[in-house]
Amino acid sequence: MGVNELTNGSVGYRLLGVNQRMIWLVIPRLQVGDSCSSVRDCGTGLYCGNCPAAGRTKLSCIRDLAIQPTSIVKGLPFNRYSWLVTHNSFSILGEPSRTGVERVTFYNQEDSVTNQLRNGVRGLMLDMYDFNDDVWLCHSLQGQCYNFTAFVPAVDTLKEVEAFLSENPTEIITIFIEDYVHSPMGLSKVFTAADLMKYWYPISEMPTSGKDWPSVTDMVAKNRRLLVFTSDASKEASEGIAYQWSYLLENEPGDPGIVPGSCPNRKESQPLNSRPASLFLQNYFPTIPVQNEACKENSGLPQMAQACYAAAGNRIPNFIAVNFYMRSDGGGVFDVQDRINGRTLCGCDTIAACQAGAPMGACKDTGAPNQTTSPSVNGNVYSGTIEFKTHSTSAASNNNIRSRSVFLLRLQLTLLLFFSFRL
């Protein structure tokens, strides 16, 4: 008997050859939270994993794909939507060294920028430095890029962005630059070299005084599909790159941004409840990234999203920035984004329940609360599960893991610097 398999969304098809007769068996694909043994068991937009840090040692289906809200609710101002952002998008675990020196630094993501974009990420945080007579993406040590903290020339990653925008003519991407580039016109040169200027959203048309942004439909029609913000205020006059905190509000990054019930503004940012800026970026990641802890941390996002919503005067986060974005105990950042977009854009519990062109509050039935459903979006099947819950954690254990990580990293960096200066 021969066996072949095909998959389509939440259904698998198995072809059996029995006595020269072909029989198709329809095998339902598993959804969020269902036990699995391999990725082939799970539906589209899911992978098979676990979260031992949260006490979930058994394999189950976990989300790794976002629903783009603009595919369902179209034509609203850009600042009405919420988008997924990867913190230090370039800092990819397993990325080969490009300097010939073994890298010793932190890692924040697990897959390529191209794959991040394909999975629904629409914002990239990139740290840019002068290095090797070029602009590189790098972690710093005392404000400088070293060969053991460098990743790739910035133009390489920007070319991935250009390829995605070219292949997806209705998508909009935002780049946030932590800017340490001092070479004259350094940023302009790398964006030009990556052929991204044709998508550039000009500062002259960025709204001020809290006004709405243009509609996503208008931005796409004019091909102004790349928003770029820099942390260096001087770049606005010298290179026409928007100064981040003139247009965005932002909470504290790192450990201060994940304290339950608290959401202080970043010191460079205006207070979160002020109105001159019409975009809000919520940072949600610890100071020290620990890969195996990320699934538990990301699963705590719903509570922090609610705290920041209140701190921002009932304003939704337009951008949610996380480490290891695919890691959670089930729905993770994807479900939080679905809930925010659903409530804001159509008055439904999740964006998957929204209906294109329907009035506010006209929602599709996606099943009982906290039960897995399979709403269809543009022919693909995604999870509609939304579970807001808190896992019991050991704060001491978390602190010990991070303390050990910081100590070891600092020791390695100190030794590397010591020997580099002696050579």
UniProtKB/TrEMBL annotation:
Q: Which Pfam families match?
A: PI-PLC_cat (PF26178)
Under the heading InterPro entries, the entry gives:
PI-PLC_domain, PLC-like_Pdiesterase_TIM-brl
- SUPFAM superfamilies the UniProt entry points to: PLC-like phosphodiesterases
GO:BP terms for this protein?
lipid metabolic process
Under Gene Ontology molecular function, one entry of this record is: phosphoric diester hydrolase activity
Domain of life according to the entry: Eukaryota
**What protein does this entry describe?**
PI-PLC X domain-containing protein
From which source organism is this entry? Answer: Zea mays
Which gene specifies this protein's sequence?
Answer: LOC100193675
